[in-house]
Specification:
2 helices, disordered C terminus, 60s Ribosomal Protein L30, Chain: A, single chain, alpha+beta, six-stranded mixed β-sheet
Length: 133
């Protein structure tokens, strides 16, 4: 039976509801969606580009706490409140991710938590003891 390990780090904002920042299980890390909230100030960064960069940094922090990293991401989902921001978010995402790029979906939503403009969630290969054999 596979064990679930809760991932918690100060390198990303804490959960704002009844969920974990990530769960490692079955050789994978399932990271909750991250918005452009600065983990220190607890304030949203200003503008979609800055929020996208912060969201990626928050994802990176969660993955690193799990012993993984952006280079191990296999699936990304990006949520946008305005599909006109696609190109801007895509640029921030492309600067952070490593080829071969993960599979990805981008969807438009009406609203995001805290009034965020972008939210990014990922599934990544776990590292260390959580790695699938």
């Amino acid at each position: 039976m596979s064990q679930r390990r809760v991932i918690q780090t100060d390198a990303a904002p804490g959960a704002i509801g009844p969920y974990s920042q990530a769960i490692a299980a079955a050789g994978l890390v399932f990271a909750a969606g991250q918005v452009g909230l600065d983990p220190v100030t607890r304030q949203l960064r200003e503008g979609v580009a800055a929020q996208a960069e912060q969201a990626v940094a928050n994802v990176r922090g969660v993955l690193e706490a799990a012993g993984s990293g952006l280079e191990r991401v296999v699936k990304t989902t990006i949520f946008l409140t305005d599909m006109d921001d696609f190109a801007t978010v895509n640029e921030a995402y492309a600067r952070a991710m490593i080829e071969p790029f993960p599979a990805r979906s981008t969807v438009a939503v009406k609203q995001l938590p805290l009034g965020a403009l972008v939210e990014i969630e990922v599934v990544a290969l776990a590292g260390g003891d959580d790695q699938a054999s």
